[in-house]
Amino acid sequence: MSTRKARRTVVTGIGVVAPNGTTTESFWKRTHEGTSVLDRVTREGCEHLPLRVAGEIRGFDPVDLIEERYLVQTDRFTHFAMAAADLALDDARIGRADYEGDPFAVGVVTAAGSGGGEFGQRELQRLWGQGSNYVGPYQSIAWFYAASTGQISIRGGFKGPCAVVASDEAGGLDALAHAARSIRGGTDAVVVGAAEAPLAPYSVVCQLGYEDLSVCDDPARAYRPFTADACGFVPAEGGAMLVVEEEAAANRRGARVRAELAGHSATFTGASRWEESREGLARAISGALREAGCAPEEIDVVFADALGVPSADRAEALAIADALGGHGKRVPVTAPKTGIGRAYCGAPVLDAAAAVLAMENGLIPPTPNVVDVCHEIDVVTGRARPAELRTALVLSRGLMGSNAAIVLRRPTATHA
Amino acid sequence: MNDPLTYQELAALMKKGAGVSVDPQEMESRPASGFDEYGLDSLGLLGIVGVLENRHGRPLPADADRCKTPREFLDLVNHTLMTGA
Known about the structure:
Number of domains of chain B: 1
Structural class of chain A: alpha/beta
Structural class of chain B: mainly alpha
Number of domains of chain A: 2
Largest interface: A-B, 14 and 13 residues
Helix content of chain A: 25-40%
Oligomer: heterodimer
CATH architecture of the largest domain in chain A: 3-Layer(aba) Sandwich
Shape of chain A: globular
Radius of gyration of chain B: 12 Å
Order of helices and strands of chain A: EHEEHHHEHHHEHEHEHEHEHHEHEEEEE
Number of strands of chain B: 0
């Protein structure tokens, strides 16, 4: 019998719906090639707004992927989450036959930054334009943060522990940690991640209040963290869902173990207090390393938060140095999100997916659009860098002050 | 305006409001079958009640959205439309 403490959490499935690819394979191809897909905002009703550049998901038709009865009662952010969950479950080769006998063994956790803005706007326009009798009842569930967790759970028949993490952008990593806690508590598998759809008129207008939002109109210059030209961040749609499992359960199933979720820690240092995020992020890194039983020198690559705000970039570079010591100046740091934008809670889950793929492929993806780094960290720019990668550190911060870090490890030979 | 609601129309409302495809003849021929068997949840039925209330410009009984079967729902709606002022 394995003890509770020995119940380790491993990643067995990855599903990505991102601006640079609506499959995990296409996402990884463009990510390691360093292709930037940042472009002018074309979503209906957004064209005239001051946000000019974003990472849009184009050519995604949910009708091809999701049953109509789920589509009519959900927002675009949940369409992305359901599609990504399907991809992750397929990748993990988990089907109903695997859990039909014990549906309580599989849970669902998502993180959400803003819920279903597009659906909500449509119904609120009916409220004020025609009256309350014209608001559809699905408004009550579609724009809610919890919608994606609930719909994935209902659609898949997953009756295990379900949760929604609303802890800012870094909540994407906190969701992974929450799933690991469920697994330590006895759950066999959790479908976990985050996807967002912030590119709709109401949602964009809400974001215009963020002073850290980039309103630069040149897709090649709008999001360039760690450079002297950093002028804020570019938002994105999409995200990623993972299947994580208790290691022994995954092995019993004969699943391919892709990585171990070895450690996590989170801190809070207050909204837009970027200088203070240095200490918060450093503490999160140290906490994640401690939980993983990992020395700083063992970190082979860092997936940075890379906000693109000079004070925040400086704080992050210093936090890496504070937490990793001299290794912090040598370890390769990358931020592939500069090629797709920041999908809020989806962003760090996309980074976690990219980190697993990087370890599997022995290739650190580059940081598109970034040249002339002005901080003392080794940012991978230009093209992907081949490297033996056993351990990856993924960092995330939110505009409201959350900081989080996770440590991912390649599976050891005996589990592979 | 107050023509009785038919299975055909109910099927169209279920499709439009809740994304549920159902054969009206099947609904009619199986009077005991419930909305849940066709995949219509309680919010879906509530939405159909709202559409009908807007269409006819009058409220339906408060328990309209608690009907379990299409037959029960049609009887209630049509009774209300026929007898109401």
